[in-house]
Amino acid sequence: MPASNMRAIVKARGLDCDAVILDLEDSIAPEQKAAARDQAIVAAAEGGFGSRLLVLRVNGLDTEWGEADLAAAADAGFDAVLLPKVSAPGDLTLARAQLGAVPLWAMIETCAAMLALPAIATEPGLACLVAGTNDLAKEMRCTPGADRVPLLPHLTAIVTAARAYGLIALDGVSNVLADTPELAAECGQGAAFGFDGKTLIHPAQIAPANRAFAPSDARVAWAQAVIAAFALPENADKGAIRVDGEMVERLHLEEAERVVALV
């Protein structure tokens, strides 16, 4: 959300979301950048976000505001800093030099970033890859449409890099601002691809995203059954067992434990 919108920031403290991203980049006009930065720092100092992660999206280091944004964020108490337009590992290295130990999130929204994903994903201090689908589509000169077909290889590549290097992967925003079947389908698509969650731009998008990314009751029941079955003494040394008529291996136990941890 725009860091210049204090009303939205106050409301965010009560939203049913996992993280709040205060934006200093695309949603802020040039003449408002400094004031928005100051307001974001005040919001971080005031706190009140509960268990929600508080993340600051700064301006790029190639802009006149980037360095000041990072300097202000270094000791402000944000849980992470989201760096836009990351195209190479060096972008993260420069940000890390100013931020110290503050975790970095990287917007993957350029063609160069897609080609450099493995190198970007191994940068020290990086915690999350965020798909920047709008900017990526613009760079590619493609028209994603409701099914996002032109972006599918790039979305799966982002998830693959995140899984390979132990990072969080967040799907890009939808421009649909209401709880509609189209938005629900896009959220479900992101969850099916393996994303951990989805970046949102309106409170009305929270409910469909939560429905899509939270494990269903049936999935939780399956996970609990798998965990219980492997916990039986007679299965302690087995690599594969039968659960509800299906063959289940130890790799499924790991997935079951992950699912239960989300509940």
From TrEMBL:
Signal peptide stretch: none
Residues annotated to bind Mg(2+): 109, 135
Entries under Pfam families matching the protein: HpcH_HpaI
Binding-site residues for substrate, renumbered to this chain: 57, 109
Cofactors (names): Mg(2+)
Positions of the HpcH/HpaI aldolase/citrate lyase domain: 2-203
Superkingdom: Bacteria
Family: Belongs to the HpcH/HpaI aldolase family.
Protein name: CoA ester lyase
